[in-house]
Amino acid sequence: MTTTLEQLRAGQLAGTRRLKLTCGLSEFPREIFDLADTLEILDLSGNALTSLPDDLPRLSKLRVIFASDNPFTELPEVLGQCSQLSMVGFKANRIRTVSGTSLPPQLRWLILTDNELEALPPEVGACTQLQKLMLAGNRLRTLPEQLAACSRLELLRLAANQLDGLPAWLLRLPRLAWLAYAGNPFSEALETMALIDTPIVDTRWDELKLEQQLGEGASGVIYRAELLARHGDTSRPVAVKLFKGTVTSDGLPDCEMAACIRAGDHPNLIPVVGKVKDHPAGTHGLVMELIDPQFTNLAGPPSLESCTRDIYAAATRFEWASAVRIAYGIASAACHLHRQGVMHGDLYAHNILRGGQGRALLGDFGAASFYATDDRQLGRSLQRLEVRAYGCLLEELLDRCDGLDTEAHIAAKLVKLKENCLSEEVDSRPLFDEIAADLSALMDSDHGDGAALPAI
């Protein structure tokens, strides 16, 4: 909750652990230091700040700082002196320079999305706790080789930069599971081709009647709509996603639209009906099948504390047969995507819609990236990277499974599959077609009582 400067100055916030001030600040309010004994999360986004005070380390318990939408031109060096600081977010500033001394020793999560950064300092390799690094929408042409030392790095966003390729060492990082690189020069041709060479039909704006808003994400707004009758068809309900057209933490909306189109048809993907044409404001959009409202998100996104792992409702449990069906459906969808040369990039439970009896739909292509299907080596490397993300999903499903205690041999196979997917020896991970085949065989097998698991 946003508080006011007046509340802070009146001493009404004593003992607070979180502070958010958005009130046109051009200087850091010294009264914040009155909270030094308790303050852990400080949000100064949406102000006019260009610097932080040299004595910021007086906030000795500070773990998280946000300063998005400010005019900083460099990442403040004083951050590197904050001993407990683990999350730093300076999105949508004007940052051109990051000094090695500005990186805190306990850094786990760094957000520098939508800035003017041309290089990362080699000292980033000393950030041994780094798990999430978000650099979309900058001017990076290379990555420092020292980043290879960040063996705990799990999520990396490189979309919409000036990279001419991915360094080989990047795909060897033992824990990297979520990668986005669309919107760079080396992938531009594939993205353009996906928008041009497509079977998706154009849907004129005047053929759509927008109704209520269904949801909103970083890249766009989704509406329920009616697709009006044409060519003898009858009118029918659809979903329309209108893209905002600005860089997100994952990448560019146009790249997301290209990936949705290239993905094609699969039972575990949301079908794309058409591409919006002739929007009066020139807005890009997609028309999709309307999903049954009984489908709900499998989980919520990671928290500040969990960093890279999704958050499930405390009561979330799965019958083991349902969990296996979900796991199979997502593996099958991922296998299909990689055959099209598409890496999802954000294979997470919070991007999966769950219906009854283990039905599952993989959505949100905001972090998707393209690769040439004839580049077999690159394709396998990217697929094994994404298999680790799948291993995290499988682990979460198994942790919330009921009934596996009576299915010992199935439990053992699932645990072994999970361990193989999570292996830090990248080349030892299975590919998605192997995973889908193993789960399909498991569903068809006799599981101890003479009855096979019913097919999906």
Overview of the structural elements:
Helices cover 21% and strands 18% of the residues. With 456 residues, the chain is of the alpha/beta class. The model is unreliable at 446-456 (pLDDT under 50). The radius of gyration is 23 Å and the shape is globular. A hairpin with an 8-residue loop joins strand 11 and strand 12 (236-243). It starts with a helix and ends in a 12-residue tail after the last helix. The strands form five sheets. It has an eight-stranded parallel beta sheet. A six-stranded mixed beta sheet has the order 9-13-14-12-11-10, covered by helices on one side. The protein has a three-stranded antiparallel beta sheet with strand order 15-18-19. It contains seven helices and 21 strands. The longest helix is centred in the C-terminal third of the chain and has 24 residues, at 376-399.
